[in-house]
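Sharing a chain and its predicted structure for anyone who wants a worked example. Both blocks are below, sequence first, tokens second.
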Amino acid sequence: MDFLTEHKKAIRSATNSRNRKKGAKAEDVAAEALRAAGYACVEPIETGWTIIRKYNPVKKTSVIASAFPKKKVSGDIKAIQPGSGRMVHVEVKSYLGNLAFSVLADHQVEALDRVNNYGGIGMGPGL
């Protein structure tokens, strides 16, 4: 692999890591806001990860080549609304400036709509 390709991969990896950290912080802030508003059982919606490893026969070790979620989930945080007991799913976004509804992927909108259709509350930017 040439230098330019390696450099681009390193930049992409650093950017992805920075974005994950910003997203995790935004989720923590959103969870605290839900707790402060009286929501109960506030917790992240976990998804498993598929990890692809690349074996190096010379060093006889393997490194993570890529990782991705096993499935798409219905939001980032789940909670129970005070008083009504309704399930709440929240999609959290960390974004500078005005946050448009279009930053949600189609599967995220569909998942939050499904929560709403079953009597829960699906929350996200622009919803």
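Comments welcome. Residues 51 and 67 are 4 Å apart (CA to CA).
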